[in-house]
């Protein structure tokens, strides 16, 4: 097992998440990543595409195939009453954030999404991904919730329902031949989406449609990268105070008003929030400001 892990890890950049796993779970995750050729958790937002046309053509039988036959996560009876499943309700409640796609090969694609917690809507969303054939056959999946380690959970299920809806919308769109004559139809659809965007609430279908999917960007993605990622380098540990000061002058910090407000609103729970830890590292927080102003270096 160990030798296989070593062989896999030579040219793939693994995520911190991977290193936090152990035993058979780590080995299985490694197998999945090896099949894909990259670790979806190690990618940045910019590595993915949000192009609607890249959503695999998942249909209802593909969902049954994956959740019932392949993973035994759900039963036929549950699927028969899928509208009462958590997975379906997570999707229609708008808890699946923007679907992000990355092509694996000519016929396969990885879909990644953040899915809000079932109970704790304000917690950092869970991260789920699936590997699917572009024609909709789901090959494997993963989620960083406890249940997701076994390839299927409500969050993966919710993503599958999101893909299924996306695929249905693609199928109901005009074909290439029809496109020319259907400009009016397209304008009508656009106007329809625009009109419902003015209503109160956040229709789940908007998580699939640009530009409305911006409403579904997980808070963590809209926040600036933690300062520790921008500042910290192993080599700086050996530098003296003066050298650190001059290094500091080379660094520029870009932060806009929206990000400031978002940091404030998403860290109100302080130590109960993971974002609070991430964003305070490297910052002079209000409670430290006085000491900073009064500290003498000499
Ligand atoms: Zn999950």
Automatic annotation (TrEMBL):
GO biological process: DNA repair
Keyword set includes DNA-binding: no
Keyword Hydrolase in annotation: yes
Pfam families found in the cross-reference section: Viral_alk_exo (PF01771)
A molecular function (GO) term: endonuclease activity
SUPFAM superfamilies, alphabetized: Restriction endonuclease-like
UniProt KW keywords: Endonuclease, Exonuclease, Hydrolase, Nuclease
The protein's name: SWIM-type domain-containing protein
